[in-house]
Amino acid sequence: MTCSAGGHLAQARAIVEEFRGDYDIFFVTYRLPHLGKGVGNYRTRFVTNPHVHYPLYLVNLLQSLFIMVRERPNVIISTGSGVTIFPCLVAKMLGAKLFFVESGSRVVNPSRTGRLLYRFADLFLVQWPAILGFYPKAINGGPLL
Amino acid sequence: MILVIAGTNPFCFRRLLHPMDAWMKRTKADVFAQIGNSSFEPQFMRFKRFVERDTMLSLIDEAEIVVTHGGFGSLRDCLSANKRIVAVPRYSCFDECLDNQEELVQALEKAKRVIGVYDISLLEDALEGVRSFTPSGSDMSRIPMLIEEFLQRCR
Lengths: 145, 155
Description:
The structure holds 2 protein chains of 2 kinds. Chain A is an alpha/beta fold. In chain A, helix 3 links the parallel strand 3 and strand 4. In chain A, helix 2 packs across helix 3. Chain B is of the alpha/beta class. In chain B, 39% of the residues lie in helices and 15% in strands. Chain B contains 6 helices and 6 strands; from the N terminus they run E-H-E-E-H-E-H-E-H-E-H-H. In chain B, helix 1 links the parallel strand 1 and strand 2. The mean pLDDT of chain B is 95. The interface between A and B is large, with 41 and 37 residues.
């Protein structure tokens, strides 16, 4: 699971908490004071947040390479935003399937991260029907609210 | 108790906090505010910048009415507790956020799940109106189930 903070993290947690099956799950996100050692009881690997300073995307890329070569996930699921771009692309390059969940705050206008990762996603989910116009191959699953 | 939630957004939400503080002073209502990253500190409301997640869920549970910014996480917590919600979206043009929250609040208001306040001068009307507001429920999202279906195919 890879996600940014705030609502993106809330949506990632909402998804894993509803899973019925048993999966080996780890999170990739950026460090925030309230996260402590990680997201809930899940193994968490931290990357830098490139949103604050765009050159940090290079650091984020190197960190993503290091993490994904070690972890080799079968599937990477992102709820956005920009901090998840390189984790997703690197994991995909190493053979993972990419699932992307467009943020539930995106009702009529798509996100930049969503538009970028749409062409790489094996499964692209949105939460409101109006946005399907931007993502013809997506599935609307309804809001995680 | 009326709970005010500004969330963990990095921007200040003075546009909501200041009038809530003034309203509380006038009405002497019992208000607690989670003010977040705010340069404005309330003079009359009880407040904290951030609280632990468990504490936030308890506060929401205890509240009669919640006045929240339009952040997805905050709205999700309040909706799942089935509270009467006044939702005030942040706008990037007021330097309150990077991405506008208006779309989500409008969609939820259309679904009769919150009362939206877009023009802050209408906040007090909403605080009155929400007392007799009964929010509609909603179906669970199919997203976790859809993901699991696809995960099975990846085994």
